[in-house]
Amino acid sequence: MDVNAAVAAAAAIAGVLTGVIAMLAFRWSEREQKRPTRSSLHTDAVLPPGVDTVLSVLRSSAVVLDEADAVVKASSAAYALGLVRGGKLAVEPMMQMARDTRRDGEIRQVELDLPRRGTGRGEALAVSARVAPLGSRLVLLLVEDLTEARRIEAVRRDFVANVSHELKTPVGALSLLSEAVMDASEDPEAVERFAGRMQIEATRLTSLVQELIDLSRVQNDDPLEDAEPVRVDELVAEAIDRCRHQAGTKQITMAAGGAAELHVWGNRGQLAAALGNLVENAVNYSPARTRVGIAARSVNAPGGDHIEIAVTDQGIGISDKDKERIFERFYRVDPARSRATGGTGLGLAIVKHVAASHGGEVTVWSAEGQGSTFTLRLPEAGAARDRAHQQPARETRAGGAGLDVEAGRSTPTSPESTAYETLPAPEVLP
């Protein structure tokens, strides 16, 4: 009994000691939690009331520096741009601006080009930095990323320059030809010859203006506002009829197949223009007495069924370096040949934007001397209509007035997957 009592007493004493130690540890933990931390003393106590909230809602990257050039507060965007590293401002010109502002209290602003983090291609970030005093000891740095704005400005500038150049050529030609007609008023044959040239240049000018209007329209309008099921065979027939004269002049055979009972969902006018541009390019860049095929088929895809319309020619083909740029505005694989055929360099840009605005894409396979296959891939009417009903609110596309900043890149497509010979027997249309 004595032994048992001693053991029980020892256990009781140990339990009491454990409880006391646990209570003391709990009290100490609470005290430590309530004690202001170094970071809280450094930020909450230093920043003026409300500044933290204001900085959190600013679109600009924000950094607050103290009198020792240490970062008191920095937004997540500042870290993403690489402005702050290891608790310090990592951009020396901005650091010097902050020191000068702290010394004289003047607000400073400058535009800088900063190296982009994580890339080895020498790309730079264009930023605008503004430094102002914040209270008596702090300095506020606001940085705005101007990279995208600069890129859009460059594209807009190039676009205007290209348009000016393209318009200048036919306008200048018309001016010279009109003078020639006046000088040759006594020579009926010369007048007739010059008048014919004037008609060619006037037609080229009209086509250029019309394609500029079409490009602006497809980039600014929402084609799915008035969307409807469109029969693919009707689009193919319109495209062939549009190019029938050019094809007949060059004795090019056009063949269509596989388009029966297929429907796409979208704007009929834009889709007809896009497919017509592809067929017209195929005819213009094909040698005489060759073949152009237009074929369509339905393709199962995880996001819904798609319709692929392939336009295959036996023309000059496209080199690998040109395939990366053929969907850019005014870019021509063969400028001399484009001048001869009246091409403006806008047809494929229109095709790209029509495809993108309809939720599809355009791809190209080509080999020099073997021809090309352009494939217009669009959502099938039923699947696209269901998605449109499920998501009636569509976000407004960026870009504006025919100045979409995307240059457009093509994706190689195997000829076996799109060539018209693999589809049902085509209907030959002379």
Automatic annotation (TrEMBL):
Give the PANTHER family listed for this entry: PHOSPHATE REGULON SENSOR PROTEIN PHOR
Q: Which GO BP terms sit in this record?
A: cellular response to phosphate starvation
Name any GO cellular component annotation. Answer: plasma membrane
Kindly provide the name given to this protein in its UniProt entry: Sensor-like histidine kinase SenX3
Q: Which residues form the Histidine kinase domain?
A: 162-382
Membrane topology, from the record = Multi-pass membrane protein
Question: Is Nucleotide-binding tagged as a keyword?
Answer: yes
Q: Which GO terms describe its molecular function?
A: ATP binding; phosphoprotein phosphatase activity; phosphorelay sensor kinase activity
Q: Which PROSITE patterns match?
A: HIS_KIN (PS50109)
On whether Transport is a keyword of this UniProt record, the answer is: no
Q: Which reaction does it catalyse?
A: ATP + protein L-histidine = ADP + protein N-phospho-L-histidine
Polar residues composition-biased segments? 410-420
Compositional bias ranges of the Basic and acidic residues kind: 383-397
Q: State which residue ranges cross the membrane.
A: 6-26
Record localization: Cell membrane
Q: What is its EC number?
A: 2.7.13.3
Renumbered to this chain, region (Disordered) spans: 383-430
Q: Which organism is it from?
A: Streptomyces variegatus
